[in-house]
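Q: Can I borrow your eye for a moment on a structure tokenisation matter? Would you mind producing a protein record, from residues through to fold? Write it directly below this note and I will take it from there.
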Amino acid sequence: MPENETDWTDDLLQSWSALQPGFEVGPYEVTARISRLALHIARHQEQVFGRFGLNRGDVGVLSALRIAGPPNHLSPTQLFKGLMLSSAGITSRLDRLEKRGLVRRIRHPNDRRGVLVELTEEGRSVLNDAVAANTAAERDLVAALDGDDMHALARLLKKMLAAVEA
């Protein structure tokens, strides 16, 4: 869509402005589009990851274990804090992934009451395949941007996210 054409967000904000004169649309021009993009991105990722029997949450857990470095294990507490989930949320995810043989729970070597979650070879393989397939989908999602646009947008989003997460 050329920059001078209106989109769904423009139409929505124009309607709000008509209903409420003086309505400040500036922030919504950004946040409404980010929200809409997030929905499109999530839908695409769910479709790609679904081909591997995974969802975005599963990929989050497997990725956290993968980037933890050898021996690719973390405690359930580290996982739920890092992924911003509840304890119950991470437990159900781990149960599902363990049942598929993608992770395994092992006894913590320094805490008799504790467990660690470990990425299995099968988990590593499925994750690598899912991420590789998703890379092509992600490329398609940003295809409207050239390299300079992509870099500029990434910089601006990083700046905004840093302020929100501070």
